[in-house]
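Translate structure to sequence.
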C-alpha cells in the first residue's frame, strides 16, 4: 500500500531589525533594500516574516503589512515576540549587533535555528561587551557590507574568515535614476549658483556626535581651491544639529569661504536626485564609513566621486576603479583631487551604467539568495 508523501514545508525566515521607515541613514537604507530583496525572493521559495523594534508601519513598496510586525520602540516587547516566533523559524537574520541578545537567547532555546548577523561598520569594529562577544562566536554566519569591516572583525574578534561573507550595499530599487543630467534650474536659483560655477557636493548627516565624515576637511580644502577656482561652490547638504551648525558657521568665517560654501540643511526625498545633479563632483572623505551608499547614489546620477582610502569607502569605489581615493587627513590631497575631478570631462551616462553593473538591485538579490542557500 502506497504511503502519501508529506509535502516539503518552505523554509521559514525571520528578519529582525532596528529601524527603516522611522529614521534616516545608511543602515536604514540598507534595511529597506534588504527587506525588499527578501520579499521579492520569498515568493514560492520561503516563508518570510519581518520585525522592527522601532518602526510602527512599513512602506508597502518595500514590505507588505501582511508579513510585517512593528513595535514602535518597544524593544523588550519586540525581543520577546522574536524569541517566541523563532521557535518555529529556520533562519533568523539580525540587522544589527545591538540585537545580539535576541540571537543569543534563540541559540540557547532552539539550537537548530540558523542565525545570521548583518555587520555594517563602526558598531562591530571595536571590542564588544560580553553578550555581544558571545553572540559573535555562536552565530552561524556574518554578512559584512565591506571587506574593510570583514577584516576588522577578523582582527578584533578573532572570527574565522570563512564565517564572514562580504555582502555589499545596493542602490535603492526606487531611487530616481536620471535620464538627463542637466543641473536643475530651481536649485541654481535657490542657492544663487551660476550654471558655469563648478560645484562640489556632499550629502551627509551633520551631527556633532559624528565628526568623521570629512566635510570639515573639504571646507578647508575649498579655502585652498578657491585660489585657483574662485567661483567654486561647496554645497553641503543634510540634516544638522545646532552644535555642528555653529561649528561649521565658525569655520566658514575663519576660512573666509562665505561666498563658496552653502549649507542647505535637510533635503527632502523628492529633491535628493536633483541635488546630486546640481554637483559636478561628489566628495565625502570619511574615516569611519562602513560602506557609503551615498557614493552609489552619486554615481547613479553620473557624478565623479572622491572618498577616503582607509575605511569601507574603498569597497564602494571598488578600490579606486569607480572613483578617487584620498587620505582623509590630507587637505592638500583633497584639494588636488577636487581640482582634478572638476577639470576632467565626464561621461555621466557611462558612470551611471558602471555603478548599476557593480551594485544594482538585481545583482544584490542574486548575492542574497546565494548567501541564504549556503546556510
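Result:
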Amino acid at each position: 500500500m502506497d504511503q502519501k508523501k508529506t509535502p516539503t514545508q518552505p523554509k521559514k525566515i525571520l528578519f529582525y531589525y532596528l529601524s527603516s521607515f522611522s529614521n534616516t541613514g545608511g543602515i536604514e537604507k540598507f534595511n529597506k533594500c534588504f527587506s525588499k530583496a527578501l520579499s521579492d525572493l520569498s515568493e514560492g521559495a520561503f516563508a518570510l516574516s519581518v520585525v522592527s523594534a522601532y518602526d510602527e508601519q512599513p512602506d508597502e513598496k518595500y514590505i507588505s503589512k501582511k508579513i510585517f510586525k512593528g513595535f514602535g520602540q518597544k524593544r523588550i516587547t519586540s525581543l520577546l515576540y522574536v524569541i517566541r516566533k523563532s521557535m518555529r523559524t529556520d533562519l533568523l537574520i539580525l540587522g544589527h549587533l545591538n540585537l545580539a541578545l535576541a540571537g543569543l537567547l534563540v541559540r540557547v532555546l532552539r539550537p537548530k535555528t540558523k542565525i545570521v548577523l548583518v555587520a555594517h561598520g563602526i558598531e562591530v569594529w571595536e571590542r564588544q561587551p560580553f553578550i555581544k562577544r558571545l553572540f559573535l562566536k555562536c552565530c552561524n554566519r556574518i554578512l559584512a557590507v565591506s571587506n574593510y569591516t570583514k577584516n576588522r572583525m577578523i582582527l578584533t574578534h578573532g572570527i574565522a574568515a570563512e564565517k564572514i561573507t562580504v555582502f555589499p550595499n545596493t542602490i535603492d530599487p526606487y531611487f530616481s535614476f536620471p535620464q538627463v543630467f542637466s543641473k536643475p534650474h530651481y536649485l541654481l536659483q535657490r542657492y544663487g549658483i551660476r550654471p558655469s560655477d563648478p560645484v562640489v557636493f556632499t550629502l551627509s548627516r551633520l551631527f556633532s556626535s559624528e565628526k568623521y565624515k570629512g566635510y570639515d576637511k573639504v571646507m578647508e580644502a575649498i579655502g585652498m581651491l578657491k585660489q585657483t577656482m574662485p567661483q567654486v561652490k561647496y554645497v553641503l547638504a543634510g540634516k544638522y544639529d545646532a552644535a555642528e551648525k555653529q561649528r561649521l558657521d565658525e569655520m566658514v568665517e575663519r576660512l573666509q569661504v562665505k561666498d563658496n560654501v552653502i549649507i542647505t540643511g535637510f533635503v527632502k526625498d523628492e529633491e535628493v536626485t536633483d541635488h546630486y545633479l546640481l554637483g559636478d563632483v561628489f566628495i565625502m572623505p570619511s574615516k569611519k564609513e562602513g560602506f557609503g551608499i551615498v557614493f552609489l547614489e552619486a554615481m547613479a546620477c553620473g557624478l565623479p566621486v572622491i572618498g577616503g582610502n582607509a575605511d569601507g569607502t574603498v569597497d564602494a569605489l571598488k578600490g579606486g576603479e569607480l572613483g578617487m581615493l584620498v587620505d582623509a587627513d590630507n587637505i592638500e590631497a583633497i584639494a588636488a583631487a577636487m581640482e582634478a575631478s572638476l577639470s576632467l570631462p565626464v561621461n555621466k551616462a557611462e558612470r551611471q551604467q558602471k555603478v548599476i553593473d557593480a551594485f544594482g538591485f538585481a545583482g544584490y538579490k542574486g548575492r542574497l539568495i546565494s548567501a541564504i542557500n549556503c546556510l
